[in-house]
Structures are given as C-alpha cells and as structure tokens.
Write a structure and sequence with these properties.
9-stranded mixed β-sheet; Structural Genomics Hypothetical 15.5 Kd Protein In mrcA-pckA Intergenic Region, Chain A; single chain; 3-stranded antiparallel β-sheet; globular
C-alpha cells in the first residue's frame, strides 16, 4: 500500500493515521516494527514529511492489525524449562525473537507456533500481539540465551508487566574490547539517534533541545562486574535494571568497551562517527530493517567472532495476588557454552 504526500510538514504517524483510519498508537507500532518506509527508508514516527514523499506499508491488507506467525515444525530450539505456565528457551544468536513482517519465518515465535500453538493466544489475549507467540520479553537478534514464553494469557500479562516494570532480574555475559580493572554502573539516558533512526545513543553534555528534537528520552541503568581481564579484552557479568533497545551495547560502547563482534556500536568507538545500521548483522527487533528476513550462512549461531553477548540469568517472582493466584516463579541460569569458554580462555 502506497501514498504520495501532497503537502509538507505533516508527521509520519499523523499522515498514516489519516490515510488508514487507524489510531496513532497502532500506526506508531507499524513504524517501530519496520513495516513503514518513506522513499524506501525507515523513518521515526515524528518524521516530518515533505510534498512528493512516497510512503509505503509492507503489511498485507488483512494483516494490518495483527497476525500469527507461521508454524515451523522444522525448527528445533533448546528448551531449558517447561511446565503448564511457561516455556524457557535458549535462543540462538542470529535468530530473531519474533517476525516483524507478515510471512517472515525462522524466528523463535515460528518455533513456538509450531510446537506450542497456545502461546499465540496467550499473547493475543494477554495484552500483546499474536505474532509474539507468548514471548514476554525480547533479545536483540545477535544476543543468545534465556528467553521466556507464556502458555496462558494470565501468565503472559503478569510476566510482561514484571519485565516492563523492572521486577525481573536479568544477567548477561559479555566479552568486550578493552582492559577493565574495576566494576561499575552506567546511568546514561538513551535516545534514538536522529542521524541513524534505527540506532540508539547516550545523551551527551552538549545535547540541547535542538539536537534532541522530539526524541523520547529513555532512562537506562546498567551494572557490570569484571570477571577477568587481559591487556586488550575483558569478560563482564552485566545486569541491566532497565530494558531499552540496544542498552547494553550502547552503554558499554559509550565508556570505550564495545562488545566483541559488535560491528554497529564498535565502529563508533573506532571512528568517532555514527554507525550505519547496514554494518550490523544482528539488528534489534525493536528497530529492525524488514529486509533482514533470512539467516545468512555467515551469521550462524556458532560464529563467535560476530557477537559476544549472552543472556544467562532470568529470575522473576510474580506474587499470587497479582497473577490470578498463579504464584509464578521463574529462575533459570545458563552456563557459558564450552566453545565460548575456550574462546574466553584464548582471549583473556
């Protein structure tokens, strides 16, 4: 579906709302999920259109509100824990959590749709989207590790709220470029980079109202502990207390410690310039380019040179009173895989 803009200075989200009859919240979700292009490029919801711009939506007419992921019985993902309430998976690197465009395949949600179809109804009826297939949180495409899916709407709603309000303890293992002796915290707020709308950056001292524009400022807090360190690289245990797009990657890169294999934010440290999303083999699901639908051979989960961030711990305790008497407890911890241990020994 395409439209040619006939007048200038109208916001993208307002334009789409007027053209489709949908609310601003719905069209903003389309924009965020990568379905909308302006002259062939993704733009933020507040982008000001000019006369002659071509606005296009890649959704099918019957799929503009929501759709279920296609079931894929051929996918086989490691299941870490399962009961009648939740499924805890070990997500491979280079695999998206859920599809961002109609018909996309080879995501965790496609696996869940094939093996546990009740997960689709769990998120659709629990306040989320059918395409999430019960997934209660997200990991960047390149990040591997613990991912939790709900099997009922009540569990989905309770866990999604726990993740959104910071009541879930999450830990990651990260191998970073650079030597580090002491542990610490990073409290830098994040904002979408106006120069590259699909990337994030920390807010700097020189930022003012003009440089920030109408971008939403996101508070972000990351704690890190040094596990070991060499002259050139360090192994960190990272605990984010907020869950922002690319948070760990941006925060660590901002203090000169980009994650090994992060070609998006690592480039910023080397060159001092804004990165290009085309440099990132694992774009975030929150701001993904819809053309990244396939899994290239060069981005296999065992290709450790590309990305070295792994979610190893998720702990959630949802009281019975807030989850329809569920009394839900999720407590999963992963060891570092043997190939990673060998690589760490070699690096450190």
């Amino acid at each position: 579906m395409n439209w040619v803009v006939k007048s200038s200075s109208v916001r993208l989200d307002r334009f789409l709302s007027d053209q489709t009859g949908k609310g601003r919240r719905v069209v903003s979700r389309w924009i965020q999920d990568g379905f909308v292009l302006v002259d062939g490029r993704p733009r933020p919801a507040g982008f000001r259109l000019t006369k002659g711009n071509l606005v296009s939506i890649s959704l099918e007419d019957d799929a503009m509100d929501d759709w279920a992921p296609a079931p894929q019985d051929d996918l086989d993902l490691p299941i870490l824990a399962i009961d009648d309430q939740v499924i805890v998976l070990d997500k491979p690197s280079a695999m998206p959590a859920h599809p961002v465009r109609y018909g996309q395949r080879n995501t965790v949600a496609n696996f869940l749709a094939g093996r546990f179809p009740e997960c689709i109804e769990a998120s659709a009826q629990g306040g989320g989207k059918a395409r999430e297939a019960g997934l209660c949180h997200r990991l960047d495409n390149g990040t591997s590790g613990v991912l939790v899916a709900a099997r009922t709407a009540a569990v989905y709603g309770a866990l999604r709220n726990a993740f959104a309000t910071g009541h879930v303890h999450k830990e990651y293992i990260a191998l970073v470029e650079g030597h580090l002796d002491t542990s610490g915290t990073i409290d830098s707020p994040l904002v979408q980079d106006s120069a590259q709308p699909r990337t994030m950056r920390v807010i700097e001292a020189l930022d003012d109202e003009r440089s920030l524009g109408r971008s939403r400022i996101l508070t972000a807090h990351t704690e890190y502990t040094v596990l070991s360190s060499s002259k050139t690289r360090s192994l960190l245990l990272v605990h984010p207390t907020t869950g922002r797009p690319h948070q760990i990657r941006v925060h660590l890169a901002s203090i000169g410690l980009p994650i090994v294999g992060d070609r998006l934010y690592g480039q910023r440290r080397r060159s001092g310039t804004s990165p290009s999303p085309n440099d990132d083999p694992f774009p975030s699901l929150d701001i993904i380019d819809p053309s990244h639908a396939s899994l290239p051979q060069s981005a296999r989960p065992d290709d450790l040179e590309r990305f070295f961030l792994r979610a190893v711990t998720v702990k959630a305790n949802v009281p019975a009173t807030s989850a329809g008497n569920l009394g839900l407890i999720v407590d999963v911890h992963l060891d570092v895989p043997a190939p990673w241990k060998k690589r760490i020994d070699d690096e450190i």
